[in-house]
Amino acid sequence: MRCLIIDDEPLALELLEDNINKVGNMRLVGRCRTVTQAMQVLHDQTVDLIFCDIQMPGINGLQFVRSLTKKPLIIFVTAYQEFAVDGFDLDVVDYLLKPVAFDRFLKACNKASGLFELLKMRTETAPERSKKYLFLHSDYNLIKISNQEITYIEGLKDYVKVHLAGSAKPVISRITIKALEEQLPVNDFFRIHKSYMVNLEHVHSIRKGRIKVADSEIPFSDNFKDVITLMTGKLH
Length: 236
What we know:
single chain; alpha/beta; CATH 2.40.50.1020; five-stranded parallel beta sheet; elongated
């Protein structure tokens, strides 16, 4: 993973660089003392993971992350615990408090690596699922459904309910949610529960175990927290 570190304190930069060099799959591509320098690095090369301080002169870390349109994975490294809620509201991978013990740093890196591999897997398989529609058997008919019409999909053992925008009646088809998931574009559709999959285009909000999709609220499972982090990263 290509890493960027941002901190206005030279010693903090040195410590972060030393820790990154101890992690096998991490490669440092830039170290910056200001957000302006960091923006230049992001413009010039690909960055997968950013370690970012919060309290910095000028634009702080929170403002910087909010400004990113294409957001890499983010780990905040700060001396201020009071920003933790704001940090996690931005769906960052982790929030580390200085001074950071190496085992805690490594735990955050492993979490970021897992998310990175998940993202890479979804990106690599995306070209295989590029169709803009699918066909489902329902009521003895073969129905063509546009992907963009689908708000969310509800799994019921060997059946699914496909909920459509502007329609009060879902399409019911004899197919498992897992089999249907394998037919849909991975950058648009996200499995958030063993029984639910959502179309990112129709997601309005996320709060405490619930996701608002179109006019419905559906649950998401703790087992899919990494997927939620990946999905919400695409919402920014």
